[in-house]
Amino acid sequence: MSIQAPASIVMIRPHHFLPNPQTLSDNSFQAPISSYHPDVAARAFQEVTAAAQTLRSHGVYVHLFDDEGTATPDSVFPNNWFSTHAGGHVAIYPMTAPNRRRERRSDVIELLKRDYRVQDVIDYSGLEQDSIFLEGTGAMVLDHITRIAYVARSNRADPIALERFCTNFGYEPLAFDARDEAGIRCYHTNVMLCVGTDFALAGLVMISDRERRAEVAQRLAAPGRQVIELSHAQIGEFAGNALELQGDHGRILAMSTRAERSLTPSQRARVEHSCIIVPLEVPTLELAGGSVRCMIAGIHLEPRFAPAVS
C-alpha cells in the first residue's frame, strides 16, 4: 500500500451535465458551448457510470453519488471542493465560480464521518466572501510522501489560502508560474502534473523560469521517482490529469483513453513498471476542461471497517 494511492474514492454522477459559462474565461482546456452534442447530459451520465464500474472491477472502492440538480454543471469534478488526509483530516475549499460553490454536499461529508475515522473538518469556504480561492486538489497537486503541495499560480490558487492550508495540514508550498504555448496561464495544477508513488507525469515545459523548473523536477525526483516529462501536446490531451489508485492486485493509473493514447511507448513502459494503466472513456466530460483526475476525490482516511463490496 502507498500513501500516495488511495484505495477508496468519491465520484459524482451528473444527471444534467452542461458546459459551465462561469469557468470558460480562464479554462483554456474547456471547449466552447457550440462543441457540445445535444445529448451531452445523457452521455456524461453514461461515462461516469462506466468509469465507476471499470474502477470497481480493478478493486477500487467507489462511493458513487448522484447529482440530480440543474444548478451545478461541474458537479462531476468533486476533487475541487474537498480533500481528505491521513490522520482523519478533511478540508473544504473556497471555489471561484459562484455556481460551483453549490457543489459542496453535506451528505458526502457525513458519509466520510460514518465510514471513515474523521477527526476534524476544516472549512475554508468562508474565504469566498473576500474573493480568496483555493480549488482543492485541482489547484494543488499533493505529494503525500514528501509533504509538498505543488501549485501553479492562478486566480484559483490564492497564496493566502494556500499558506493556511499548508500550515494546517503540514505541507510545504511550492508555487510556480505555468503557461501553455499560447502564453495562457494554467488554470489548475492537476492538468499538468500527476504525482505517483514511483513516477511523476510532469508538464515541466510549462514552467518558464528555468531555476524553478529545475527545482520542481529535483523535488519530484527526490524520493526516488522517475520524472516523465510531458510535451505541450500531451498536456493538451490530458496526459497530466491522471491519478494513481490502489487496486486489488496493485496500483493502477486512472487516466482517459485520450490521455493514454498520447503517451509514447517509452513513457508507457516507465509508468507500467510501477502500475497498470487503466484508460477510461470520458470524451464528453473532457469538453468541460477536466479529465479523469478531476472526476475523482481520493479518500486518504482510515476506514472504520473493511468494505465487503463496492
Spell out the blueprint of helices and strands.
Layout: E1 8-14, H1 40-57, E2 61-67, E3 82-85, E4 89-92, H2 106-115, E5 120-123, H3 136-139, E6 140-143, E7 148-152, H4 159-169, E8 172-176, E9 193-195, E10 199-202, H5 210-221, E11 226-229, H6 232-236, E12 243-247, E13 250-256, H7 257-262, H8 265-272, E14 276-280, H9 283-286, E15 297-299
Parallel strand pairs: 1-2, 4-5, 7-8, 10-11, 13-14
Antiparallel strand pairs: 1-15, 3-4, 6-7, 9-10, 12-13
Keywords: Transferase
Protein name: Amidinotransferase
GO molecular function, one term: transferase activity
Let me know the average pLDDT: 95
Portion of residues in helices?
A: 25-40%
Number of helical stretches of at least 4 residues: 9
CATH class: Alpha Beta
Domains (count): 1
Protein name: Amidinotransferase
GO molecular function: transferase activity
Keywords: Transferase
Organism: Nakamurella antarctica
